[in-house]
Amino acid sequence: MGEIIKGKPVADSITEELIQEVELLSVRGITPKLAIVRVGARGDDLAYEKGALTKCKKVGIETQVVELAADITQDDFIAKLQELNNDASVNGMLIFRPLPQQLDESVIKYIISPEKDVDCFSPVNVGKMTEGDETGFPPCTPTAVMEILKFYDVDVKGKDVTVVGASMVVGKPVSILLLNEFATVTTCHIFTKDSAKMTKEADVVVVGVGVPRLVKENWVREGAVVIDVGINVDKDGNMCGDTDFDNIVDKAAMITPVPGGVGSVTTSILAKHVIKACKQQNHVNSKEIEAVMN
Ligand SMILES: Nc1nc(=O)c2c([nH]1)NC[C@@H]1CN(c3ccc(C(=O)N[C@@H](CCC(=O)O)C(=O)O)cc3)C=[N+]21
């Protein structure tokens, strides 16, 4: 039986640290604030929003949900983002994606202020992530994957890691973050000839495609580490990941469950990024705050 590596201990350890950071900021009269920008009311946006609001409340981060009509025009949407960019009380912004058809992401991604872009929408943050510049904000879910690997002492340096999926939300950024840690990364996508062949050879498999139970037992080698980023609802209405968990769990050395795996760490990273943004905007570093306390 492989080890089921849960997200909760990882999330709890991050949350504990963040609660302390918020307390230290409050001594200076600073309260971090996140604005969530939601267009319409898609189910998976609402699911993420609920988790994010709960986490922020627990940590002591203020929140503002900006709910916009599903048919908002591009000009009105851009005006709203600029208003939030200019609102000094807002430290971080999370814009749910994908945006509806009439909003052109290739234009909008340049509007959000990179300093407030806590989920890596801005090309500035994509660039910083790619360079390994730690002043930026890599996206929350891929960062959660890296935090889980670190927490459970999975050192990816020199390991063969296969990522299934190449989206800008999961596959591509997680591939970059893994490469930054000197993993040998293979990224599979819809034009990959044989994804199973690539995953079978990997020491670590990361899957984020949104296809329920895509990765089967025979896609994974004995003793592999499997990180499942998928959050799906199957035809029976149960939450499931992108891996056939029940049949892989005995073969893998470690595997993340769904729910209770990567998804449960994502909101902690979001909160961490809001606090980081707040500190950067107020020109404070942790050491400085500790000095004030002592
Ligand atoms: N810019 C952007 N970044 C995103 O990461 C993003 C997005 N837009 N748009 C919507 C999708 C969907 N999504 C979910 C996240 C958590 C749950 C979820 O259910 N989370 C549970 C935990 C699930 C678990 O335990 O695995 C919770 O937070 O309590 C669902 C959906 C993020 N997305």
TrEMBL record:
Pathway linked to the protein: One-carbon metabolism; tetrahydrofolate interconversion
Coiled-coil blocks: none
UniProt GO BP: L-histidine biosynthetic process; methionine biosynthetic process; purine nucleotide biosynthetic process; tetrahydrofolate interconversion
Annotated Tetrahydrofolate dehydrogenase/cyclohydrolase NAD(P)-binding domain residues: 139-281
SUPFAM superfamilies: Aminoacid dehydrogenase-like, N-terminal domain, NAD(P)-binding Rossmann-fold domains
Entry binding sites for NADP(+): 165-167, 190, 231
Keyword Transcription regulation: no
One GO molecular-function entry: methylenetetrahydrofolate dehydrogenase (NADP+) activity
Keywords associated with the record: Amino-acid biosynthesis, Histidine biosynthesis, Hydrolase, Methionine biosynthesis, Multifunctional enzyme, NADP, One-carbon metabolism, Oxidoreductase, Purine biosynthesis
Catalysis performed (reactions): (6R)-5,10-methenyltetrahydrofolate + H2O = (6R)-10-formyltetrahydrofolate + H(+); (6R)-5,10-methylene-5,6,7,8-tetrahydrofolate + NADP(+) = (6R)-5,10-methenyltetrahydrofolate + NADPH
Record note on quaternary structure: Homodimer.
Similarity annotation: Belongs to the tetrahydrofolate dehydrogenase/cyclohydrolase family.
Function: Catalyzes the oxidation of 5,10-methylenetetrahydrofolate to 5,10-methenyltetrahydrofolate and then the hydrolysis of 5,10-methenyltetrahydrofolate to 10-formyltetrahydrofolate.
Name under which the protein is recorded: Bifunctional protein FolD
Organism name: Acetoanaerobium noterae
Gene that produces this protein: folD
